[in-house]
Design a protein that fits this description.
Elements (H helix, E strand, L loop, with lengths): L4 H16 L8 H11 L6 E6 L3 E7 L6 E7 L26 H17 L6 E7 L7 H7 L10 E9 L6 E2 L3 E4 L1 E10 L3 E2 L10 H12 L12 E10 L6 E2 L2 E10 L5 H19 L2 E10 L2 E3 L1 H14 L3 E2 L20 E9 L16 H17 L1
Parallel strand pairs: 3-4, 3-5, 5-16, 6-15
Antiparallel strand pairs: 1-2, 2-4, 6-16, 7-14, 8-12, 8-13, 9-11, 10-12
Helix pairs in contact: 1-3, 3-8, 5-6, 7-8
Length: 382
């Protein structure tokens, strides 16, 4: 283990500080500043800030030629009220680190401690603290930043904690590990009327009542089936909150999921046909938009092999678990530039689930996650 007890105390303090002051996607400026303040005394060769928004990249360079290894964590929290009695609970109403990004980022700062004491013998290590993962725009923004060309990796690695898996155990496999998804926003517009004379308006009520079950019925199979499809209705709004008005507009939000990117276009087409048919039947205008677009994450066999070797060396139990996850992750975009692999680190079989108001990242995982990543560094770069 490359961390001292005092290191672990300071890392847990950092994790708790990040947890107390959560910031949502696109607003992570103070979180990034706290990370930079921790990194600066460790003297990386370079720290890039404001990368793709509020992103931070710390570069530990050996000065000798060799591969570049990128390790990614996330900076953003969720717009969910935390329900906790922990001393380090969120101090920001309606926001909480309820996915563990505070812990993932602390794992990378633990690596920075180790790399400051024993730099790689060749090549470079890039510790990337990515913004805006939760809404799917952060990875794309980092990659689009002109400075990304300075840190393009030969391999990219990441992790995510996984409640339901025994504490400290790892789920890892090659191939798809997170599904593709996108948010579909449907706007139906007709004409309002007095509630006593609904026939004088054009109400979207029937279309909404028809579309919600019809869209959900497009769902099929479960991962890892290649033809897995899932449509989840996440929000609906009809008219005004008034008894005297027959509604003239409505919105439906749905999340579309497929195992891989190449299946998404067909699901979009099927969903849009349903929407346009329902609107046409009732004389409604339609607007459809897409947000929170996530590519599927695929683990490259050669990158997985490095993680498997590290896990075996460190004596950490691992297997395929229940992968792939139905949830999405924007780490998948980095595979456009390098072989990628993400592993899933058990947070405990009875631990509260991700995005739940009582979730909190287990501090014990800081040392476990950083040990795995540092072993990868030593195996590849010396």
């Amino acid at each position: 283990m490359f961390l001292t007890n005092q290191d672990l105390v300071s890392l847990i303090d950092l994790r708790h500080e990040l947890h107390r002051f959560p910031e949502v996607s696109g607003d992570e400026g103070e979180t990034a500043a706290r990370v930079v303040a921790f990194l600066q005394p460790l003297s990386p060769a370079r720290i890039l800030t404001d990368l793709g928004g509020h992103g931070v990249a710390a570069v530990f360079d050996s000065g000798s030629s060799g591969p570049t290894l990128l390790f990614r964590s996330e900076l953003d929290a969720l717009p969910i009220e935390e329900l906790s009695d922990a001393p380090h609970r969120s101090t920001i109403a309606g926001k909480g680190h309820l996915c563990g990004h505070d812990g993932h980022s602390t794992i990378l700062t633990a690596m920075a401690i180790g790399l400051s004491r024993q730099p790689p013998k060749r090549g470079r290590v890039v510790l990337l603290f990515q913004p805006a993962e939760e809404n799917g725009v952060g990875a794309a923004a980092v990659i689009a930043d002109p400075r990304f060309c300075e840190i393009v990796p030969d391999f990219a690695f990441s992790l995510h904690n996984m409640p339901g898996l025994p504490l400290g155990h790892v789920a890892l496999t090659d191939g798809p590990v997170n599904c593709a998804s996108r948010g579909m926003r449907i706007r139906l517009t007709g004409k309002t009327s007095h509630a006593s004379e609904p026939e004088k308006g054009v109400s979207p009520m029937q279309a909404v009542a028809c579309l919600m079950p019809a869209l959900a019925a497009l769902s099929h199979a479960r991962p890892p089936a290649p033809d897995f499809l899932l449509v989840t209705i996440t929000h609906a709004e009809l008219g005004e909150p008034a008894f005297g008005i027959s509604p003239g507009a409505a919105e439906i939000w749905a999340t579309l999921r497929t195992l891989t990117d190449d299946r998404m276009d067909a699901l979009i087409e099927a969903a849009e046909i349903l929407v346009h048919d329902a609107a046409r039947k009732d004389g409604l205008q339609v607007e459809i938009g897409y947000e929170d677009v996530f590519h599927h994450c695929e683990n490259a066999p050669e990158a997985v092999a490095h993680l498997e070797r590290a896990l075996a060396t460190e004596g950490i139990p691992f297997g395929p678990g229940d992968l792939p996850m139905r949830a999405s992750e924007d780490f998948g975009r980095f595979r456009q530039h390098a072989p990628t692999a993400m592993f899933f680190l058990g947070a405990g079989e009875r631990h509260p689930a991700l995005h739940n108001p009582d979730y909190d990242f287990p501090d014990d995982l800081i040392s476990t996650g950083s040990r795995v990543f540092m072993r990868v560094v030593r195996d590849i770069l010396g």
